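Researcher: I'm preparing a figure for a lab meeting and need a structural model of a single chain. I don't have an experimental structure, so a prediction will have to do for now. The sequence is pasted below. Please return the structure as C-alpha cells so I can convert it later.
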Amino acid sequence: MNFVHQATVGAVSAVLFLGVSLSFGQSLPSPDEATLPNDEVLVNASKSPFSIDAKALRRAAAVFDKDRSLAPEAPLRFRVIDYTPKAEPLRIWIERDDDVETVAVGADGLLSLPQVAFADGARLHANRSEEALTLTPEILSPGTALHTRRLGDLRLQCRVDLALRIYEEPLYVRALMPPVSMVCNSKNFGYYVYTGFPVESAEIPGADAYKTVRGDKSKTISMRGGYAAPLGDRSISDDAIIELK
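Model: Understood. Here is the structure written out cell by cell.
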C-alpha cells in the first residue's frame, strides 16, 4: 500500500473507529493484453491492475461542483503518482464499450480527464498495479503552487479525494462513512498532503496557532514528502496560504 493511500486510510479508520482498509481502484481479473489506439498492444501482467469506475469519478466531480465555493477559481485536475518509474512507460487509458482513448499525463504529473471518463460504462485503466499507482485530486488556485498551498484548495481537495476513494468500497463501509465534508472538517482527521519532496517546515503566516503545521518526521513521510494541514480549524480562512520550505 502506498504512502498517500496509507495516510488517508488511517485517518478514515480513526474517524469510523473501524480497521477498514480502503483500496484505490478495484481488483478485477483483466485480459493479458489491452489494445490501444494505433494498434499499440499493452501487456499488463498485474493480478490487481489499477482501475477506476466512472461512477467513482462522477461522485468526485459532484463533490467538487457542490463545494466549489472553497476554491472557486481552481480546476479539477489529478496528480499521477507512479511508484515504479523505472518500469515500462506509464500509460493511462479509458475504456467504454469498444472504444479506447489514451489520456496524456503532463510533464508536471497532472492530468485533466476528458468527459468520456465520466460517462456510463467508462473505466479508467493504467499499466500498473493498484499498489504501484495513485491518482489523487490536486486543487490549485491560480497563483498557487506545491510550495504555496491555499487552505481552501486543500479543504476541497480532501473532500474530492475521499469521495473518490470510498465509492468502490463495500456498501457497509459507505453506509458507516460520515459525509466527506464532516470528515474533512473534523480536527480528529489527519489529511496528509503529498508533495513528492521533503518538507522541513510548513507555516501559515499570521496564524499563530498553526505557525508550524503538524509535520511528521517519520521515515515514511520523509522518504516521499508530505505534511498535515489544519483543515478542521475554521478560525483559519480558506484564503490562508501554507508556505512550505
